[in-house]
């Protein structure tokens, strides 16, 4: 093997210019692959982290996976009923205090009950449809990301006495209201009450900043005419990766629907998976193109070194050694190109992460999210070495089949 390595190195050194061009081609492909993978995975991690942070990791609601059977269906074995009025069941989580206590006993995180209802906010002749949350301020601050996004005030101000409300800054601007303004909240049942704005938040998500308002739980229960009722329990876990496991256990215990953040955003996660498949397919295609350069170089070497091949085979070198010789030459180009590609990729990552991006929504400059991950380097190298191996093996197999007698006699 040592002799084969020496011969391969001599062949490569004899065509240094072509080898340099092929190696640089591999280096650029590996470098751009590393930078692209870092950018794609970094953006994905940043998006998922914002997604996970924006909503509860698990949410237990008053829904059921399957609608409950009507009493007539349970009492009579009839095929179909006509003219029956379904039971108008007052929605809500049953035995909310006991359910909350039971979940708090084993859930590895924080638990907060809430009453979520649809309402209309009115102020100065303007109105907007909103989602109204009745909350316990101290517990909500532990599970909601909104607690970190207050421009003025906080959840604690809801417990200061009186009818107080906090809302998104965009919603307040839309209504023309400001802190201290008295906003009327009207529910679907027609009940209305005035609330004083004591806090504004800005999450950067327009759908939340323009449509979410928070009041004390008792105020929401009174406004909706549902005393002591809650219809959602929001859970923030210490480890978001366990959300699906916790949701299944909570649903089995409570008997009502529990949704993890993964289930709630399943379509988005599937789209991210498809995007990754597309990215690595493109990388493989680029590596294949670089492999053609290696194939061209090694094919040229095998043609020029035909007499050397004949002499080596005449001396007793088997066909397997001929294949290894030219395969080693292809792998040398791929290996050197991969090492240079690591430097190119690292430099491109440094360049990308240094580019400031100004986004008015976030109130200043931000930077591209990159993932500095060693597997990106290893994966790009694996693609490059695989392409170099295939590109080196094909002419190596042809060289191994050459008849030394025909070569020495000058046969073509």
TrEMBL record:
Ranges annotated as spanning the membrane: 277-298, 331-357, 377-394
Domain MacB-like periplasmic core per the UniProt entry, residue ranges: 24-249
Pfam families noted in UniProt: FtsX, MacB_PCD
Keywords: Cell membrane, Membrane, Transmembrane, Transmembrane helix
Main location: membrane
Keyword Lyase applies: no
Subcellular locations according to the entry: Cell membrane
InterPro entries xrefs: ABC3_permease_C (IPR003838), Lipoprotein-release_system (IPR051447), MacB_PCD (IPR025857)
Residue stretches making up the ABC3 transporter permease C-terminal domain: 281-404
Source organism superkingdom: Bacteria
Record keyword Cell membrane present: yes
Membrane topology: Multi-pass membrane protein
Family: Belongs to the ABC-4 integral membrane protein family. LolC/E subfamily.
Protein name per its UniProtKB record: ABC transporter permease
Lineage start: Bacteria, Pseudomonadati, Pseudomonadota, Alphaproteobacteria, Rhodobacterales
């Amino acid at each position: 093997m040592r002799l084969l390595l020496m011969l391969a190195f001599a062949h490569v050194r004899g065509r240094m210019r072509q080898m340099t061009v092929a190696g640089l081609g591999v280096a650029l492909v590996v470098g751009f692959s590393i930078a692209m993978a870092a950018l794609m995975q970094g953006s994905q991690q940043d998006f998922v982290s914002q997604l996970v942070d924006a909503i509860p990791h698990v949410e237990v609601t008053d829904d059921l996976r399957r609608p409950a059977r009507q009493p007539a269906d349970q009492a009579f074995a009839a095929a179909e009923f006509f003219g029956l009025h379904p039971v108008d069941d007052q929605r809500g989580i049953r035995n909310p205090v006991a359910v909350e206590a039971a979940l708090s006993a084993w859930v590895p995180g924080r638990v907060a009950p809430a009453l979520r209802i649809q309402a209309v906010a009115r102020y100065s002749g303007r109105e907007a449809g909103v989602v109204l949350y009745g909350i316990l301020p101290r517990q909500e601050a532990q599970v909601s990301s909104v607690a970190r996004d207050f421009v003025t005030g906080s959840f604690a101000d809801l417990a200061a006495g009186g009818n107080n409300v906090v809302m998104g800054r965009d919603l307040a601007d839309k209504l023309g209201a400001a802190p201290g303004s008295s906003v009327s909240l009207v529910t679907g049942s027609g009940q209305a009450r005035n609330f004083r704005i004591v806090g504004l938040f800005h999450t950067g998500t327009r759908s939340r900043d323009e449509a979410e308002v928070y009041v004390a739980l008792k105020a929401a229960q009174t406004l909706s005419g549902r005393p002591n009722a809650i219809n959602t329990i929001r859970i923030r876990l210490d480890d978001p990766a366990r959300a699906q496991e916790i949701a299944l256990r909570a649903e089995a215990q409570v008997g009502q629907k529990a949704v993890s953040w993964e289930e709630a955003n399943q379509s988005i996660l599937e789209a991210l998976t498809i995007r990754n498949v597309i990215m690595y397919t493109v990388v493989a295609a680029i590596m294949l193109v670089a492999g053609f350069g290696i194939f061209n170089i090694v094919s040229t070497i095998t043609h020029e070194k035909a007499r050397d091949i004949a002499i080596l085979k005449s001396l007793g070198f088997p066909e397997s050694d001929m294949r290894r010789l030219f395969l080693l030459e292809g792998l040398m180009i791929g290996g050197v190109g991969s090492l240079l590609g690591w430097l190119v990729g690292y430099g491109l990552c440094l360049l990308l992460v240094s580019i400031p991006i100004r986004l008015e929504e976030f109130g200043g400059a931000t930077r591209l999210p990159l993932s500095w991950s060693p597997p990106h380097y290893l994966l790009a190298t694996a693609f490059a070495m695989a392409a170099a191996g295939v590109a080196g093996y094909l002419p190596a197999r042809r060289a191994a089949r050459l008849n030394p007698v025909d070569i020495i006699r000058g046969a073509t």
